[in-house]
Each structure stands twice: as C-alpha cells, then as structure tokens.
Write the structure tokens for this entry.
Amino acid sequence: MTRFVLNGRPTDVAADETTPLLWVLREHLKLTGTKFGCGMALCGACTVHIDGEAVRSCQVHLQDVAGKQVTTIEGLSANADHPLQRAWVTEQVPQCGYCQSGQIMQAAALLRAKPHPSREEIADAMSGNICRCGTYLRILRAIERAARESPS
Amino acid sequence: MIAEAPRELSQAEVRVLSRREFFVRIAGIGISVSFIGDDLAPRYALAATAPSGPASWHANAWITIDSDDMITIVSPASEMGQGIKTSLPLVVAEEMDADWQKVRVAQAPADAKSYGNPNLGGVQITGGSASTRGYYQPLRLIGAQTRRVILLSAAKSMAVPVEELTTEPSVVVHAKSGRRLTYGQVARTAELPASLAPLTQADLKPPAQWRYIGKDLPRVDIASKVDGSAIFGLDVQPPGLLHGLVLRAPVQGEGPENVDDSNSKAIPGFVATVRLNYGVGVIAESVWAARACREALQVQWSQKARARTYSSTSVLEDYQAIARDLARRGVTFATRGDAQTTAKSAARVITASYTSEHVHHATMEPPNATALVSGDHVEIWAPAQAQTFTQLATAHALQTTPDKVSVNTMLLGGGFGRKGETDFCVDAALLAKAVPGRPVKVMWTREDDVRHGKYRPLAAQFVQVGLDRDGRILSWQHRIVAESIFARFSPPQFEKSGGRDGPVTEGVDLPYDIPHLSAEYVREARGVDVGFWRAVGPGYTKFAVECMLDEIAAATHRDPVQMRIELLKGDPRARRVVSTVAQMADWQRKRQGSALGIAYSDAFGARCAQVAEVSLDRQNGTIRVLRVWCAIDPGVAIQPANIVAQMEGGIIHGVSHSLFEQVHFAQGEVQESNFHDYRVLRMSEIPEVEVKVVAAPENPPGGIGEAGLPPVGPAIANAVAALSGGARLRQLPFTPDRVKAALKL
C-alpha cells in the first residue's frame, strides 16, 4: 500500500510499487485526464505536479511519490477556473485536446515559478510538450493572457 | 469561462440513444428525410416517408426535441480537433432556428445509411476534408424541414394560418395575437404532416439572416478539454476491462512461426496469449502487466515477406529514375491539349525532380480500441475516423456481418488519416474474442505506432515545362511515382478511377492558365502499406508544382506573385487570396538576413495562399521559418475563427513536415521509434503566423482541415531560393545535409 496526497486528499493505492504513476492515476484511480503519449518523457502529455513541480508521470514509479503531494489536471482548480484554464477557453486553444492537460500543467508550474515570463521563457519551458495539432501559437497567447490577468 | 456553451452528451448518454430509442425519446416529432442523388452532384428530395430504391439514401435521426426545450443534434463526423462537432450541428440549428444555448450534440453511431457522407459515396468516414463539404447542404435542408414541421404543428395547435407564424430561436411567434410557443411546447403535440413539399434553395435562410453561420461560437468540446474530463478512445474504461498489447512482426507481411509464452504466463496479471496472423497478442489485468507479458514473449518470425527488400534510400532512387523515364507509362489524367508534342517544339524546356519521404502521423493519442465480444455481437469503442470500414473490417476479422458490429466513436486525440485505418480496431476485436464477455482495450505504444504506421507514400515526381520565346508556359507534364493508397484501402475506388489514385495524385490538375497539361501516375507496389496523411497528395504535389513555378519565374525574370496572378486569370477568388497574402507580407519589401517565398494551393476545395519568411544558418544547414502569412478563401466560412485555428495548425504541421519529418525503412524495418528520432516541431521552433479568412459566403464550403498544409513546404523552399541566390530544395524534408548540398550549387 502506497500513501500519498492526490489533489489534496490522502490516497492509498494497492498496486505494484514499480508501476509508473501515469498508469496508477489512469487505471487504479480512474483519473484519465493525464494522458499517455510516448512513455519516454519526450512529449509531456502525462505531466502532473509532484510537490508543485511539473513532472512526467510516465517516468515516476508509484513508490517515488509516497508521502508526496500529487496534483493532476482534475485537481488543478476547483471549478476548472485556474487562470490558465480560463485563458485556454478564451483563446480556444485545444484542437484535438489530447495534449492539453499536460500543456496546462506544465504552464501552471511555469507561472508559479515565474508569474510573468517572457515569450522566450515560455517557449523554453513549454518545448518539452508536443502538440501535434499545432496549437502552440494559442498556447503561447493563453499563457501570456493568464500571466497578464493574474495579480502581479 | 463560457458557461452557456452547449454541453456534449457523455458517452454513456450517447450510447442509450440508439436509433430506436431515439424515436422513443422524440416528443411527437419524427422527421424523415431522404436524399436521392449520385455521389458527385447530389440532388436532395425531402419527403414525409422514406422512399425506397437502391439510389436512395435516407436519414431520420438527426434532431431530437425534448419538451423542456433541449434539442439534441447528431454530429455524423469524428471530432479530431477540426471543430466538426460544433460546425455541423450549428448548421442544423441555424436553419431550424434553434436556440444554440439549448442545443446539445450527440455523436452518431456507426450507421452509414443514416449518417454516411453523400460526397464520399454514402460511406461514414471523416477524411479528405470532406465533412463540411458533404454535409453542409443536406444538414441545412434537414434543419429547414424541421422548422417547417414545427411551424405547421404550431399553426394547428394555435389554430392560425401557418403564414402568420415566424420563429425566434426555439420559439414560434404569432405576432398578431402575441402568442408564443417554445419548440419544446410544440414538440409535445407535434405530428408529422401526411405530406411535406420538398424544400428548395429558396427555403433556406439567406446569409443576411444567419444567426450562427459566420459568427464564431465557442466550440462545444473546448471546456472538457481544459479540465481533463474529455473522454478519448484511450480513456474508455468499461467495468471488468482487460488490457491488451500486440507484438507485431518487425517487417510487414511476416507472421509468427514459433511462439513461446511460458515466461509471460509467469507474470502476475497475465490472462491470455492470442496468436494472430501478423503478430502475437497478450491480455493482462493492467497495462503495465501487459507490457511485461509482451516483453517476455519469445517469437520466431517468418522470413518470406516482399517488404524485406524495401529500403527507403534505394526505393527513392528507383522511383526517381522511373519518374524521369518518360517511356515508363502510367495512368494519364488531367489532360488538356497535347503537352508531350508541345514540349518538343517549345523554345525552352525546364525540368526538375522532386522527392518526398514517408511521413508518419504520430497522433498524440496512439491508436487504440476497446472491444467487447458477446455472443455474435461485438461492441467497439474507438477513436475511429472510419465507422463504416471499422464495421466491415471487424466483421471480416471475426467472420461475422457488419450489422453485428457496433461502434462508439470516441473523441480522437489526433487523426490525420491514421485513425481512418482499421488495424487497431481489428486488434481489439481479435483479442476480445479470446475472452468473451470481458472488454479488452488494445493500446499501441508509441513505438508500435511509429514502427507500424500507414505512412504517406514515398514519392518521386518529375516535372517538365515547355516555355515559348517570351517565357510563357505552354506545356506542363507532371509524373508521380508512388505506391497506391486506394489499391489497398478501397480497391473498388481504385478500379473506378481506372488506376488513378485520387489521394496520391491530388493537386496536379492545375488551376493555372496553361494550354497543354498532362499528369501521369506510375504505381509501384513493393509490399509496404501506405496511407492517408494530413493533406496526403497535395503535401508533395503542390511542393513540386509551386517550386517549379518559382523556378520558372526566376528563369524568366518575373515576380512570383505577379506570375501567379497572371496564371490565375480565370479564377478571381484565387487571385484575391494571392494578392491579399502578398499585401499582408509586404511582398515587395526586401528584408535583411531573411527572404520571402510564396505558394498557392487549391486543394480540398479551398483557395489558400501563403508567404513564408525564412533565415538560414549556412554553416549548419538549418532553416528558421520566422513568419508565415496565410490568406484563405474557404467559400462560406461557417466558423471563421475555427478556420484560422485550422490554418495555424496546418501551417505548424507543414513546417514540421518540411523541416524534420521522415520515416526510414531498412530491409523492411522502420528505423524510427519515438519522438527522439521522429522529430516534430516544438514551441521554440514555431514561426509567427498571421491568417486572414477571405470568405465568399455565396459559395459552398471548402475543406479546411488540410488546406493549410500544402503551401508551407514550397513557400519555405522558395524563400530559401530567394535568400540564397537560387539554391533549390527539391527534396522533402529540408534536412541540414540537403540544405548544405543545395547551398553549394
């Protein structure tokens, strides 16, 4: 049994401790907002926060999160009203939408560390997250909007 | 947050809306609509009863009106990011004058008879940028006919002449008496009249009265895609779900000869091994256990496949030689005049060869499907583009009939043509057959996906152009050598076209004023499947055409924009997008350290012109695409902002494709496996993009999902030529080696 805090709630999971967190979230905990994309930390679709840091959940074993705080897209905000989520809707960012949970989680970690990033800093921070539909331009705009609309 | 956005039905809700139950739920209104016509120029007849006969195509399950005023509109096409789940129901809502805030959208079940695309021979498949083109007019008619039935019913219950009634969104209004009935109220007592006059174009709203078309409503699927609640194919989790993986033969056409699964059986969570013609399936209690079971398999593969001789480099050389050899005849089409004879007497002949490699879709959601076999019925949940083919292929694999296969179309995490294939659904069906009563989800890992794709054909093209003494183009000969998609995917269509493969050769029937034109397709079959990709043929044919035009402009000292405008003299809309994009890019202004290139495409019924601005790192051979301007005439623009989004996506995809993307075969084995060696564009590498939609509302809609891609490659290559004093990139993608080689010339 592995215990950690998931989206603010203490959670116990009985699974092989070497299972990647990604599959624990999706299969055991039925939180399917975190996506499988590559299994090699190359695409960012599985990005979650562990103790506030953006991490690729395909590369983290269940045992590694024991005692830690894990946040997924489902727990990013109470009513899908994180400034980034609001900006994502305003800019109509998603196309297929599959990569967007990871994009938003990556961007949320960026803004927490750096509330008003430059365009270059955004591109640097986001370049580990692939969007095959090509929504990068809107992701960029949405992050800028969220930064602008957040209190400095 | 836009709280009023129409919500989508959950999959569970969609599932209960089977056709029969649909009618049960209808509060009094049953709309029966039939379409009669041929594939190319459908004529639509609407009647109260469905006529019969082999040429008829009838649908009757598009609209449900609840007594509480909620209206459910069915979307027939797969949503893969192109916004179709909004734009098609919106067209219905427009004509029936429904209140969009009270509309919900349901995904159609697999039912070609009701939901097939009339422009695709009645097949239910989302592809070829054909959904809006195929459904726009019929759905308007369905909406208008529904409104008419509502009016007639309201007239009856109000006891007033129908002519005195008008509608506001979801409300019937009798102005004389001030009485109003909501659509929901009408639906409680509504009856289908005994007969209904067919509608004509005149019964449809004129553009000036549109409330929704052309007005940019938020997409219905966006909210669920920012909070993790959207359910894609890979997210399906029916109770009792098992997980499957398939170990495929490393070379296409091979199969397992000896399978030793004893190590797999020892792994906790192992359920079963399933031997397939093309591989070995494993079923386990979890994805992670299935991975371990698959890794523990020991398989000896057959060594007989023709694909074992297939290596990209040598195949490309062969194809180039065939393309250049005019004596190697293929299927000739797009012929006007006599290009061959004219070329012989031309004052000047310019020739060039262009090549393009296999490219892969790499949809962010890899192929996957979930299947449940119960008795002789199989239920599929999948991110499927091709419902009809999924039914056919699954039925074939399970030796049953298509009516025994039901398909739940989930959201697609990218499609681009890959999910128009059926291999992932067949995997799931074959594995589920081994454990009847238990659903099995088969996921492809990224490695499975990259190594076992249905890649865009590798192609060699040869273009020979004859000019007169003044440099005017007299003749244009275009030869394409590539494997066929349709010969595998749809043999009847391949035969019907006389061996001309539509998707492979699309884009060579030039819109330009050239008196003598011929195009020729030489099919080479070497044992490796090829498939649809975003923009398929025009992704490389427009590369050849638009680069060649640029070469001619340079050789005859003409401005490439001006030359295109002159060549497009028969098409004012095309001229307009070319001059618009030139204006957007400030074409005449010379840049320091960068240069511009232009290209135009008429593919998919849309007119799209783009200018790219590039800079070069000559030492490393790398191209930086700084900006892309795009002017698009989509005909009527149903959702202009969504068209902008599709252009942006097509351009990013096009830059990625032009600079990086290629799959290599060596002795039949794909060499790439994941995003480290199948490189795609990332955020740090994107250009700035500016898009202008030049709508022509009086015209039918063009396709927009793919139209943004074809001009990108040639615009970049032409910009590189402008920047470098004539270095021509004639091989896609523009890898550093190729760029350096071109710069030395």
